[in-house]
Amino acid sequence: MAELSLLRDSYFLGFDSSTQSLKATVLDSNLKIVASELVHFDSDLPHYKTSDGVYRDPSGSGRIVSPTLMWVEALDLMLQKLSKSNFDFAKVAAVSGSGQQHGSVYWKNGSSQILSALDPKRTLLDQLEHAFTIKESPIWMDCSTTAERRAIEKACGGALELARITGSRGYERFTGPQIKKIFDTQPEVYDSTERISIVSSFMASLFVGGYAAIDHADGAGMNLMDIKEKTWSKVALEATAPGLESKLGALAPAYAVAGNIASYFVQRYHFNKDCLVVQWSGDNPNSLAGLTLNIPGDLAISLGTSDTVFMITENPNPGLEGHVFPNPVDAEGYMVMLVYKNGSLTREDVRNRCAEKSWDVFNKFLEQTQPLNGGKLGFYYKEHEIIPPLPVGFHRYVIENFSDSLDGLKEREVEEFDPPSEVRALIEGQFLSMRAHAERFGMPSPPRRIIATGGASANKCILSSIASIFGCDVYTVQRPDSASLGAALRAAHGLLCHKKGSFIPISEMYMDKVEKTSLSSKLAVHAGDQELVSKYASIMKKRIEIENHLVQKFGRS
Ligand code: ADP
Ligand code: XUL
Fold first, then answer.
1. Structural domain contains residue 200
2. Where is the Carbohydrate kinase FGGY C-terminal domain (predicted)?
């Protein structure tokens, strides 16, 4: 804060362009939240007719996209909302943001001219209507690119080698396989695309009025960047599409300045002309910043549309499961992460079917049922899952003669559970899977502590199950949107690095005063009792056995 006191009276504006909404958080120079706002895609922009912010292909191809222009119009609406609330844009010293990771935007030849000459009398939507070659951006939920993902892995020397280079084996939702699909199936569209942005760099481009670079942390979610060199990987580029490097543009550190805010925003909303736009990054990297995750044994669990679990590391060892990204607030460090597609929307599905569409009833069922669920185990995949790689489907089992010891016991598949057991089977299943895979991935067991964030971290009953299953204290931050908060913090960080002319550790900004800021976390639930934690460990083994059988039977490689 010593550093930030130089910027007294300044605001730092952070956005989060996520799957279901665009959020904004504003921090002052004491790192206190002074404003926040939300645009919910389905309800605030109903004319796009999205469901959960997306379009799902009903044919079952796995294609999942969002209308690019909806993200543009959401920004118009967000700025109008802030304006109507008399927000003083002139005080904003720096802006940054988060994007849902992996999603991509395709700018038509000539669009950079439109971007650089935005007319402040007109909306962004009005001016960018014809700026894209592809109107529906593929997003992280898409799993329609298995052929392309395999071809890229093969051309790069196999899945493990691709992981070694880019931090992740090939994944359908990653931007490289998505670009390859467009090149392979619509080469003329690829040719008429002058720039490919990812969601984060796309939104940053609107703010600077020109194409913004892709930052190193979010760039690692493309299967295209060499994570050690932090440059585009030649072999991955060649495996994906010809002439790709020039369409991707440069890479930049997350703490770099993307440019001054475009005059459009100065004239239309009265931003200060010296306001800087700091590189945007992925929502997960920004959450890591917003949660001030800086101790190796701490684990963050984000319960948004996707569920993610991540931590920092100095020495990453990328393998066939999980992802390695550069740490957005540590020039040398990395973050490691596991991602589940069946997060909040699958919990909502069970809530709607079994708990009268109410979180209160859902929680009552969690409280009514016993931990370990009397040996009832469920696997709920409303979307194709990433971990394990299983298609859509629900699988339920009951362990026969269930008792404390599971040795030698057999499970039996069943059609359904009573509603309270279904709710518990879902929640225990999600977090047993997370614990098992996190341990396998080398995450600490038990973690020193867990910091929970994302929409569902507001639910204390869910946090209680996490504490019992992982066997550690669970903390929460003041607001569940750590991605836009982290973006606001990074806006301040980027500005300070810029003023100093070199990278400064982010901890220097808050020193030992975190608890006085809106970044402070507090204990939400104590660790579960250790006997229960070890019982969960044995049921977790059983669960992995069943999971392995399911993968053998239905899984994809
Ligand atoms: P994203 O940033 O990916 O769009 P959010 O982090 O905003 O998602 O989380 C939105 C989700 O939060 C909703 O889909 C909803 O299911 C979940 N959520 C909100 N409140 C609760 C609650 N009390 N219990 C469980 N889940 C909740
Ligand atoms: C991360 C991922 C999701 C999206 C959701 O790899 O696919 O967490 O970032 O916004």
1. no
2. 299-494
pTM above 0.70, yes or no: yes
For residue 16, give the amino acid letter.
D
Q: Helix, strand or coil for residue 285?
A: helix
DSSP tag of 320: S
The answer, yes or no, to whether residue 511 has pLDDT greater than 80, is no
Element (H, E) at 477: strand 474-477
Q: Whose CA is nearest to atom 21 of ligand 1?
A: 456
pLDDT tens for 74-133 read 999 999 999 999 999 999 999 999 999 999 999 999 999 999 999 999 999 999 999 999
pLDDT at 409: 82
- Nearest-ligand number for the alpha carbon of 223: 2
Q: CA angle at residue 473 from 468 to 475, to 5 degrees?
A: 120
CA separation for the pair 15, 26 (Å, rounded): 9
Task: State the closest ligand 1 atom to the C-alpha of 302, by its place in the atom list counted from 1.
Answer: 6
What was the pLDDT predicted at 1? 54
Distance in Å from the first CA to the final CA of the chain: 49
Q: In a mutational test of the pocket of ligand 2, which residue from 308, 321, 323, 481 has the highest number of ligand atoms less than 8 Å from its CB?
A: 308
Give me the pLDDT at residue 15, please.
Answer: 98
* Domain that includes residue 385, residue range: 344-470+526-554
- Domain containing residue 391: CATH number: 3.30.420.40
Q: Ligand 1: which residue has its CA nearest to atom 23?
A: 459
- Ligand 1 atom closest to the Cα of residue 363 is 24
Q: Which residues line ligand 1 (CB under 6 A)?
A: 18-21, 304-305, 344-345, 347-348, 359, 454-456, 458-459
pLDDT at 379: 98
**Cα separation, 140 vs 117, whole angstroms:** 31
Q: What is the mean pLDDT of residues 188-204?
A: 98
Read off φ and ψ for residue 408, nearest 5 degrees. 75, 0
Buried b (16+ CB within 10 A) or exposed e, 98-127: bbbbbbbbbbbeebbebbeebeeeebbeeb
Backbone φ/ψ region at 394: left (φ over 0), alpha (ψ -120 to 50), beta: beta
Whole-angstrom CA distances from 243 to 179, 180, 193, 213, 248 are: 12, 12, 11, 17, 9
Q: Is residue 506 part of a domain?
A: no
pLDDT at residue 277 tops 70:
yes
For the ranges 107-116, 256-265, 293-302, the lowest mean pLDDT is seen at: 293-302
Instruction: Establish if 364 belongs to a structural domain.
Output: yes
Kindly tell me if the per-residue pLDDT of 167 is higher than 90.
yes
pLDDT at residue 509, as a whole number: 86
| DSSP H or E segment with residue 151 | helix 146-155
**In the chain, % of residues over pLDDT 90:** 91
Q: Ligand 1 pocket check: which of 344, 358, 359, 461 to mutate, most ligand atoms within 8 Å of Cβ?
A: 344
- Report if residue 254 sits inside a domain: no
Nearest to 424 by CA among 461, 451, 391, 473: 461
Question: What's the structural domain count of the chain?
Answer: 1
